[in-house]
């Protein structure tokens, strides 16, 4: 044998011995000896505690489903027990992650391509604690250093990539603590027994407008959660897509959730495009609860108080936009109480405040469902109260519940609302409603707030300035051409009346409740009723017990025709006094004076009738109404006698207020009304 062959065989033998020795060392090496160094190096790299507290072992296995020479290259299999990743001490002393065991397999040949390929990962006993402080710092954001200034890191040098395959795990527990959101939630994430097709839960609707034709992946994970959020108990469950779908760039990722917070339930089902770098959401969204106003505590959107509601529509948003993030809730349908609602709303997270815009339509609105918005009686036809003002004193009529003006300053709004038909009993013949609501930096403007009533309309401009303390308010009200025949449809004799109700009011006040606003109000009110009818029966139908008493004293049980009823009130600091208040009937002239005090809800009214001679009054003394709004006390002023000509003398002093009221007389074309004649006579009376 030549010396060259001997040297070659010697080198080959050395290499084989070295390989065998290396394999023996690898197979028999106690990898736990590397734990201190490994723990120290990882802790320094991630700037937080890291430790493998249990066994660390490395074994080798042949790859499956690989042909050729590559199948002879063994893959390392790492097994580690009791792994702990800590949190920054300044945030929390709870560990970020704890694992009972970790198993992973590495494909070594991929390292030649600057790629870390981990085909399989198995986790057991996983637990994570996520904490966010009030200042915004959290324990899940890692500071791994900035290599942008490293001269060895350039765009021309491809970086390392990580490719993770299948992940299996038993249920993972997640604790979430968020101080800014006042959230304390515990959740469990687990694998579904069998994947669930996206269409089984979501249908095709959520893909509308998503800009992709790719098939949505199946649901692979399930989750459950419970805890507290903004002081409310929450619980929920849902499903998520697989990790493979999570890593597919530009693909729609399926998600589904059903969450209850307090008395509010929120359900979503749809897709999130490119979830690792979110670009778009397309979700079917359902809200349901006892009060739309509760949503302020859940999602921060200021909405009015309502009866129980539910609504379902489609929520979409372009998350990759450079403009203000905008959520669109389109083509929603729902119920508020017994009323239907439909429309489109857009919520924009802009500066200086978020804003809500859109249009809502109700084809049939039940008035009792509208009551909480306008402070009216919310009793249904069965007399059961659906929405009661909290802590309303029993001796007060005007609502004392305070406006939540801090919510008004949380966002802006520009929303139009239309009720095509209003359902109510015949005692209040509302026909339709339209309002344009604007909210700007705590100031609410309803212009117009328009009701169709009894063939006419009630047109209002209402301004509530919640940016000031106390709240400043102003209302301008115009009542036009309300037909008496339709105002009182149950009064048979009124059906032939051509009379109308017209009026104007302008009031301003300050205070954080309706009671406070009226108690401090200043302004004027004028009203005209022409060609009507009055009787005890009519007062009973209207529920006016005091009116029933007064009419009985004046006219007995007769029905008496009203030629004209006209009033002009001056309101100063919540005290309303008549400049002019006269009712002209076929039998008598009736003058009313005194005061109505909105500040203390007291009445001090005097009623003085004067016979026209067609009927001799048996009443010899004036009437009065004293007491409070809640407990009025009518009676006869026995200490005074009626003075003949008292009302007539009074009419001679009110020419100016009577002339002002003429502007409210609205006769049909080419005709005059009894009020037109009556007020014209007063205007020229000596």
TrEMBL record:
<keyword id="KW-0812">Transmembrane</keyword>
<dbReference type="InterPro" id="IPR052894">
    <property type="entry name" value="AsmA-related"/>
</dbReference>
<dbReference type="InterPro" id="IPR007844">
    <property type="entry name" value="AsmA"/>
</dbReference>
<keyword id="KW-0472">Membrane</keyword>
<dbReference type="GO" id="GO:0005886">
    <property type="term" value="C:plasma membrane"/>
</dbReference>
<protein>
    <submittedName>
        <fullName>AsmA family protein</fullName>
    </submittedName>
</protein>
<feature type="domain" description="AsmA">
    <location>
        <begin position="1"/>
        <end position="579"/>
    </location>
</feature>
<dbReference type="GO" id="GO:0090313">
    <property type="term" value="P:regulation of protein targeting to membrane"/>
</dbReference>
<keyword id="KW-1133">Transmembrane helix</keyword>
<feature type="transmembrane region" description="Helical">
    <location>
        <begin position="7"/>
        <end position="29"/>
    </location>
</feature>
<dbReference type="Pfam" id="PF05170">
    <property type="entry name" value="AsmA"/>
</dbReference>
């Amino acid at each position: 044998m030549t010396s060259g062959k001997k040297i070659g065989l010697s080198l080959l033998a050395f290499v084989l011995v070295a390989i065998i020795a290396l394999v023996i060392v690898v197979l028999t090496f106690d990898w736990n000896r590397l734990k201190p160094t490994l723990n120290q190096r990882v802790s320094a790299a991630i700037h937080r505690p890291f430790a493998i507290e249990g066994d660390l072992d490395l074994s080798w296995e042949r790859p499956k489903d690989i042909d050729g020479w590559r199948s002879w290259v063994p893959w390392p299999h790492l097994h580690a027990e009791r792994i702990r990743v800590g949190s920054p001490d300044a945030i929390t002393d709870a560990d970020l992650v704890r694992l009972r065991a970790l198993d992973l397999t590495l494909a070594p040949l991929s390292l030649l391509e600057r790629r870390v390929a981990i085909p399989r990962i198995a986790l057991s006993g996983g637990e994570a604690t996520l904490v966010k402080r009030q200042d915004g710092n959290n324990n899940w954001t890692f500071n791994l250093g900035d290599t942008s200034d490293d001269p060895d890191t350039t765009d021309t040098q491809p970086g390392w990539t990580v490719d993770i395959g299948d992940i299996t795990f038993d249920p993972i527990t997640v604790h979430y603590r968020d101080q800014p959101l006042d959230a304390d939630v515990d959740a469990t994430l687990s694998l579904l027994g069998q994947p669930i097709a996206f269409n089984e839960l979501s249908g095709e609707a959520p893909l509308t407008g998503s800009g992709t034709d790719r098939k949505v992946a199946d649901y692979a994970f399930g989750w459950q959660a419970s805890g507290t959020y903004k002081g409310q108990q929450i619980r929920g469950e849902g499903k998520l897509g697989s990790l493979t779908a999570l890593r597919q760039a530009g693909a729609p990722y399926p998600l589904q959730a059903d969450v209850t917070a307090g008395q509010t339930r929120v359900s979503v089902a749809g897709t999130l495009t490119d979830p690792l770098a979110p670009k778009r959401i397309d979700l079917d969204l359902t809200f349901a609860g006892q009060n739309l106003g509760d949503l302020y505590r859940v999602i921060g959107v200021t909405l009015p108080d309502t009866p129980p509601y539910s609504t379902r529509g489609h929520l979409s948003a372009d998350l990759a936009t450079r403009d203000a993030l905008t959520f669109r809730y389109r083509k929603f349908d729902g119920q508020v109480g017994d009323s239907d609602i439909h429309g489109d709303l857009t919520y924009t997270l802009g500066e200086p405040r978020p804003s809500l815009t859109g249009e809502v339509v109700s084809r049939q609105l039940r008035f009792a469902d509208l009551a909480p918005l306008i402070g009216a009686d919310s009793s249904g036809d069965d007399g059961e109260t659906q929405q009661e003002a909290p802590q309303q004193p029993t001796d007060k009529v005007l609502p004392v519940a305070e406006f939540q003006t801090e919510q008004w300053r949380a966002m802006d709004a520009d929303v139009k609302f239309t009720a095509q038909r209003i359902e109510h009993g015949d005692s209040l013949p509302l026909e339709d409603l339209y309002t344009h609501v604007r909210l700007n930096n705590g100031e609410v403007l309803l212009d117009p707030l328009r009701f169709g009533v009894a063939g006419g309309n009630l047109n209002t401009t209402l301004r509530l300035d919640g940016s000031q303390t106390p709240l400043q308010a102003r209302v301008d009200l115009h009542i036009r051409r309300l037909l008496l025949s339709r105002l009182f449809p149950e009064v048979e004799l009124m059906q032939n009346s051509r009379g109308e109700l017209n009026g104007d009011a302008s009031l301003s006040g300050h205070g954080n409740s309706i009671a406070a606003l009226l108690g401090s109000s200043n302004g004027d009110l004028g009203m005209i009723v022409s060609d009507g009818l009055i009787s005890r029966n009519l007062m009973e139908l209207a529920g006016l017990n005091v009116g029933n008493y007064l009419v009985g004293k004046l006219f007995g049980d007769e029905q008496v025709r009203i030629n004209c009823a006209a009033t002009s009130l001056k309101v100063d600091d919540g005290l309303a006094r008549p400049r002019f208040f006269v009712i002209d009937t076929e039998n008598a002239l009736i003058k009313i004076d005194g005061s109505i005090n909105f500040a203390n809800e007291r009445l001090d009214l005097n009623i003085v009738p004067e016979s026209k001679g067609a009927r001799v009054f048996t009443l010899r003394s004036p009437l009065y109404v004293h007491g409070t709004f809640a407990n009025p006390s009518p009676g006869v002023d026995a200490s005074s006698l009626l003075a003949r000509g008292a009302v007539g003398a009074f009419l001679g002093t009110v020419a100016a207020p009577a002339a002002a009221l003429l502007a409210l007389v609205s006769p049909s074309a080419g005709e005059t009304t009894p009020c037109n004649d009556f007020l014209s006579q007063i205007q020229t009376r000596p």
